[in-house]
Specification:
It is a single chain. By secondary structure, the chain is an alpha/beta fold. The chain has 2 domains: 71 residues, no CATH class; 261 residues, TIM Barrel (Alpha-Beta Barrel), CATH 3.20.20. The protein contains 12 helices and 11 strands. The chain has an 8-stranded parallel sheet with strand order 9-8-7-6-5-4-11-10. Strands 1-2-3 form a 3-stranded antiparallel sheet, with helices on one face. Helix 3 crosses helix 4, helix 4 runs parallel beside helix 5 and helix 10 packs parallel to helix 11. The two termini are 29 Å apart.
């Protein structure tokens, strides 16, 4: 992991962090302990063990003083939670929010299918999003809406590659991501200059994908999804969606590292709307900060999704304000990248949330903290 400590075990999550009566204090939930660990810690139940971790930097809680290995994992998880990873090169440094503009070149995407299928139309849309503040453009040639059937690789290449080629020619400094789970599509796009790969299968769909991405050294987004787009909304059930998705993303990040993908090239996405019920999506946003213990930048995509429509009783074309609320919530919880359709409006929401966290943008040589946030 490039000299970094190993990933904390999947059952270590920071569930609260902030000021306490005697200074900074984190609350850590320990689950997945084996029988020997539970007995040694005097916690014989199956429910998570909650630990107070005082201090910044964090200090070993008294209960773990005789368990140095577990104490080290807990302190590492708190340290990961409190840091905001920089992410791939070419994007603003933290805590500045990163805007990923959605460019679907499909005939059937749930929100904008059929609007940008010709390369010239896609270019105009990308130019508009860049002008509104997009830092990355995410090009998708296969709809992953619930119920969507898989598109053959050749057809997906025909949709994506001409667009990537034109974007890199006309907007060479703008990073381009390609939303695909197929190695053949990723390879063709990377050969045309694509910069990122956004894999909704988290490297599970195509066994050739991990080696390709390791070889090319490009950033990759690993997303949680149950099953395939065609089936992901059938019989959805979680005991604890955040704990289960946390464990999944931890395993996928570890797999990527084992296959040679560099730590600083990995981003994680909890997959809001992909095999989730309304209540699951809301809980993921409410507890999004718990994913920070994994130590990778978080990408969140809520734009115009059905859980917003169900919550507010709004059609897809009337979900702007609902999306803005979810974007602000994600930034406040530590999300680095926001994948959005409406770049200008969501940029305002993201920057306002970032200002609440880090202070206002600098004006006339503003304070050092604000300079760090907005330059």
């Amino acid at each position: 992991m490039s000299g970094a400590p190993p990933l904390p075990r999947g059952g270590i999550r920071v569930v609260q962090d902030g000021p306490g009566p005697e200074g900074p204090r984190a609350v850590v939930a320990l689950s997945g302990l084996d029988a020997g660990e539970r007995e040694a810690l005097g916690h014989l139940g199956e429910s998570p063990l909650l630990l107070d971790v005082p201090g910044d930097p964090p200090q070993v809680p008294p209960l773990l003083e005789k368990h140095p290995a577990l104490a080290g994992e807990v302190l590492d998880a708190v340290g990961r939670y409190r840091s905001l990873p920089a992410g791939p090169p070419g994007i603003p440094p933290p805590p500045h929010p990163v805007l990923m503009g959605i460019l679907n070149v499909t005939p059937d995407s749930f929100s904008d299918g059929g609007r940008w299928t010709r390369p010239e139309e896609a270019l105009r849309r990308a130019e508009a999003m860049a002008g509104e503040g997009a830092h990355v453009i995410d090009v998708g040639g296969e709809s992953t809406r619930p119920g969507a059937e898989e598109v053959p690789a050749g057809e997906e290449i025909d949709r994506v590659v001409p667009v990537v080629r034109l974007l890199k020619k006309e907007l060479p400094s703008l990073p381009v991501s390609v939303d695909t789970r197929k190695a053949a599509v990723a390879r063709a796009a990377l050969e045309e200059g694509a910069d990122w790969i956004n894999d909704v299968s988290a490297l599970r769909h195509d066994p050739a994908m991990p080696g390709l991405l390791a070889e090319r050294g490009c950033p990759v987004v690993l997303m949680h999804m149950r099953g395939e787009p065609a089936t992901m909304q059938k019989d959805v059930h979680y005991e604890d969606p955040v704990a289960e998705i946390h464990a999944f993303l931890r395993e996928r990040a570890a797999f990527a590292l084992q296959r040679g993908i560099r730590e600083e090239r990995i981003l994680l996405d909890p997959g809001i709307g992909f095999g989730k019920r309304l209540e699951d999506n809301l809980e993921i946003l409410r507890r999004l900060a718990e994913f920070r213990t994994l130590g990778f930048p978080l990408l969140v995509g809520t734009s115009r999704k059905s859980f917003i429509g169900l919550t507010l009783d709004r059609p897809v074309e009337d979900r702007l304000l609902g999306t803005a609320a979810t974007v602000a919530a994600a930034v406040l919880a530590g999300a680095r990248v926001l994948r959005v359709h409406d770049v200008k409006a969501m940029g305002d929401a993201a920057r306002m949330a970032a200002a609440i966290l880090a202070g206002p943008p600098p004006r006339d040589g503003g304070d050092e903290r604000a300079e760090r946030a907005w330059t």
